[in-house]
């Protein structure tokens, strides 16, 4: 998300560019991002050529969002939608798109990040009627920075296709993002080598990409199925697993059921680690790099 002052400066620069050349400055591409991580990526790759609006906050469960009229209004004026896909927004984005009736939002202008990478947990038979919200494989792909680099390259190609005049800028931004992240990824992997092979419990099955990347082992989920709250029996079973597997921690976000998390942590003789789900979900996580930094640091630090 762009800071308002940054937005104003971008606008001012655009106006000045128009004055200097004698032709009106081209307006920035208006990106409607479903979640903060996609607005952050659009800013990394689009730079000064995009202006992002983000539909949800970092402290909100992105599976469940109200289809508010203000979101419809934003979609109506958007040039490009950058969302997660893989069913994460199945409960609200289709409704918003249909209400916005913006005819340009189709094909490459509906960029779904999870479609650009290999997904974990794709199951042949998932029963949505039981409340499972991960029927199209695990959607939470942004929690692996290696996948984020792949998605950044794909977004650069999409932006170049829509706005050919700035294609070389988008490719250069993606190359820079990829180089920056690759260097950072090596550092994070080194710092997390001390926790490799350790078991963790998670509240929602939001973390498999992070768990796999860092070489952790997911021993159980507090939710019996993704999106389904746990009952007493399930909580007791997860606590038993936590103790038997000597779990490092129960990982959860700010909006998960903290009482259930604490119960499992206490009965399972482990502790809880709160993690930001996305950019802006904790102090000092305003960029993707700072966000991954915080995830890795909190897991490595553990409960002490
Ligand atoms: Zn989920």
Explain the overall architecture.
By secondary structure, this protein is of the alpha/beta class. It folds into two domains: 4-185, Nitrogenase molybdenum iron protein domain (Rossmann fold, 3-Layer(aba) Sandwich); 194-301, Nitrogenase molybdenum iron protein domain (Rossmann fold, 3-Layer(aba) Sandwich), CATH 3.40.50. Helix content is 43%, strand content 11%. It is built from ten helices and eight strands. The protein has helices at residues 4-21, 36-46, 69-76, 93-100, 145-162, 167-191, 208-214, 232-244, 258-267, 288-301, and strands at residues 29-33, 50-54, 80-83, 110-112, 199-202, 217-221, 250-252, 272-274. The strands form two sheets. A four-stranded parallel sheet has the order 2-1-3-4, covered by helices on one side. Helix 7 links the parallel strand 5 (199-202) and strand 6. The longest helix is centred in the middle third of the chain and has 25 residues, at 167-191. It starts with a helix and ends with a helix. Residues 10-24 have low confidence and may be disordered. The structure holds zinc ion. The site of zinc ion has 8 residues, from loops.
Number of H- or I-type helical stretches: 10
Give a list of the ligands: zinc ion
| Residue runs with pLDDT of under 50 for 5 or more positions | 10-24
CATH homologous superfamily (4th level) name of the largest domain? Nitrogenase molybdenum iron protein domain
Give the integer mean of the pLDDT values: 92
Name the strands of the widest sheet in spatial order.
Answer: 2-1-3-4
Overall shape: it is globular
Question: What separation lies between the terminal Cα atoms?
Answer: 33 Å
CATH domain class name of the largest domain: Alpha Beta
The profile of the biggest β sheet is: 4 strands, parallel
CATH architecture of the largest domain: 3-Layer(aba) Sandwich
How many strand elements? Answer: 8
